[in-house]
Every structure is written in C-alpha cells, then in structure tokens.
Amino acid sequence: MTRVLAAGAAIVDDDGRVLLVQRGHDPEKGHWSVPGGHVEDGESFAEAARREVWEETGLHVDIGDELWTVEVPYGEYGLFEIHDFAAVVVGGTLRAGDDADDVRWVDDAELDALPLTKGLATCLRRAGVMG
Fold it and tell me: What are phi and psi of 110, to 5 degrees?
C-alpha cells in the first residue's frame, strides 16, 4: 500500500472557531477538514502545513506544535499519514483557493452538523481545539 505523507493546520480565531475547508477533490470530496495536503519533496511537515494553508485559504500562518498524527486508509489512494499542527493567522485575506471548494470559520455547535473528513471531530476535541 502506498504511504502518502500529508500535513495540515488547525487554526482557531479569537471567537473559538476553527477554520475548515470543503475539499474540492477526492478523497472525501465535499467533506470539510482543516486546511492541508501532500508534503512535497524536501519539505518538512510544518513547511507543508504552512504552504497548504496559504494555497487553500489565502492566509499566512505561523505554525506551532504538532497536535496529532493519524493514519487514514483511503482505498485506491493508499494510506495517508497526516500530521496536523496548531497555527495562528499572521496575514492574508480569507478566500477559497487551490483545491478547496469553500472555506469558513466553524464553531463547536456547527462542527457536528457538517460532513467532516474521517475522524476530524475526534481529533479536534481530543487536542482541545474544539469543545
């Protein structure tokens, strides 16, 4: 099985909302997740998370501590090893870009009403990012 390295960022605003993107491509097209994607050759996980946030949301972030790592099998796509970090917005203008169909701030009550990527709500809550 192919192992795909990926990284993302959990970004929380002053109102306690987390920034989510609606995936524009498979796997899990249409589902909501923290911004993130593939690690490119020569990138660290943190560098990939920073780049992916910019590409998907138009925001510049400072990357903090790694919050969690998960392995998620996605059938024909292989096994994704995803490293997600805490991040803080330091600039930019929020917009859906790259492979994101939409982007928005979500509070804890809205979290369970959205179709989320596998295991995301559990990771956010276990890491203390939400609720």
Answer: -75, -25
Q: Both ends of the chain: CA-CA distance in Å?
A: 35
Tell me the fold of 3-126.
Nucleoside Triphosphate Pyrophosphohydrolase (3.90.79)
CA nearest to 69, candidates 45, 40, 88, 41: 45
Element of type H or E holding 7: strand 3-11
Neighbours of 65 (CB within 10 A): 9
pLDDT tens by residue, 64-122: 999 999 998 888 878 999 999 999 999 999 999 978 999 999 999 999 999 999 899 99
User: Is residue 62's pLDDT more than 90?
Assistant: yes
